[in-house]
Amino acid sequence: MMVSSEVKLMMKLLIKNKVSFAGFIIVLTFIFVGILAPFITPYPADARGWVFHMNQRLLPPSWKHPFGTDEFGRDMLSRVILGSRYSLIISVSVIGLALLIGVPIGLVAGYLGGKVGSALMRIADMFLAFPPLLLAVAMAATLGRGLRNVIISLAISWWPWYTRLMYVQTNSIKTMPYIDAAKVLGLRTPTILFKHILPNAITPVMVQAALDMGSAILEAAGLSFLGVGVKPPTPEWGLLVTEGWASINRAWWISLFPGLAILITVLGFNLMADGLREITDPRLRRLLISRGGRI
Amino acid sequence: MMIMPLLEVKNLVKYFPIRKGLTGKVIGYIKAVDGVSFKINENEVLGLVGESGSGKTTIARCILLLYRPTKGDIIFEGRSVLTLRGNLLRWYRTRVQAVFQNPFLSLNPMMKVKDIIAEPLKTHRKDLNKEEIYRMVYDIMEKVTLPKDLADRYPYDLSGGQAQRVAIARALILKPRLLILDEPTSALDVSVQAQILNLLDDLKKEFRLSYLIISHDLSVVRYISDKIAVMYLGKIVEMADSEELFEKPLHPYTQALISAVPEPDPDFFKSRKRIKLPGEIPSALNPPPGCRLHPRCPLKVDERCKVQEPPLIEVEKGHYVACWKYYRR
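^ inputs. structure came back:
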């Protein structure tokens, strides 16, 4: 009861904050387009990329091709729309995988502390010592091109951030009296970790994850742009920007529209996460709850 | 034959090392508890009083196995509990339970009241099904006078008194023998304090419980305790039956504590002699040599106070005091 009313309250707050609500709408649109992409592209074959239309190469934006066409005469609108699906797959799997690895490690390291905790955190620090994109590029170059490898390399350069965050959270929550009470009740350590610490520690991590969804899209595009990402003719946005690069003097639209798609989506995630951070701040929320949820 | 006490704490010592630098070199110890012994019998309430920093809570945490004692032993129903493992440790967890100071901090804010109370059963009573568990939860809620409709609420929907009742219900649902009450009322309003104390008193009779109640508030402890132990800087300075201690306090520290208890009758309050101890409680990092009270003590019996620690001796039946004034060869 309380949880759902809290979710309702959070939705209310989200709508109230115009800017983060705009971000929320952008993210929702992105998710819907990503899911429905194969059914709403005007030229499905062009979108997948295995066709040439030599008679319509490099056409500027028009009613028939609102985003113009590329070097091979493929409709850019279709390719950008289908690209959203790849970006969605990449961002969800990268962040999901990074959370799956990072959160349990941080939780265990923070709870156990001592030598085991330090050892785990030093491993995480080793990954953090590299600039994230550089590490991902090195990984991707080693593994070879392809969607799966992009996801793996990004997730591997990403998980230590969540480990850090979770570690700090766990460290502060494990000293709470309700954790003492749980120990006195004789609960098993896994129960204490996953039932008592995790739910109370996860909120900042989830906010960070929402923020990172945009960054994952951006970095995946970066990998493609650098030539170690997905294979052509996959219509991934970063790759689309690269493909237009050679002919940017003659046909600006090829790089522009996928670039704009990246910009807007990443912006959307950032705005939404910003709002989320605000409404999940316990002090602020308590204030709002104490006003009976009327804002 | 002597009756076996329910809980016996034998010469308990807990030092916390202070570490410095990267290597973690130990540069000193905080002597939180320094040789404390006491017994709690079946159906008996022992009050442990002392100001903050006197080591009361450290004793409780040692008994609850949240700290490992540096030295000494804790014996419950004839078994040393410090080495318990596996099934015996689980047995101990069902026999000794705790209620902590701040009920809002000792209840998981993400769990419903009924699930908080049910959790011990789900852990220790695998033989029960869901229906039986929740029937027991509602039973115990009634026993601690919690309205049924709070079962689906979350802790921060509750008042302080209600939240503390939830904590008590959680502690009692496994039918323990001993309850450790660590400042159970000090986070509550005065009117609620009385309700909780009355409730604890009733529950003690109904469940045949023993309590170790820890408080800095003498009037709280007096109300509910059979025996009281007064602590100062990690040591017990005086221990006696409740009434005896209030009527005939022997140790100067106890006398000072009792004279500081607020008195509702203003005439009596004025006429009463107040004993003031100068200064503050010294740091447990570096306690004074000899009797730990001697720098603040109004008596200052003789030279031994400064060099030799007074032993805790039985001056009358059941009345123990650690002061050179009462020491007879």
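The mean pLDDT of chain A is 88. Residues 69-290 of chain A form a domain with the MetI-like fold fold (CATH 1.10.3720.10).
thumbs up if we can close this ticket
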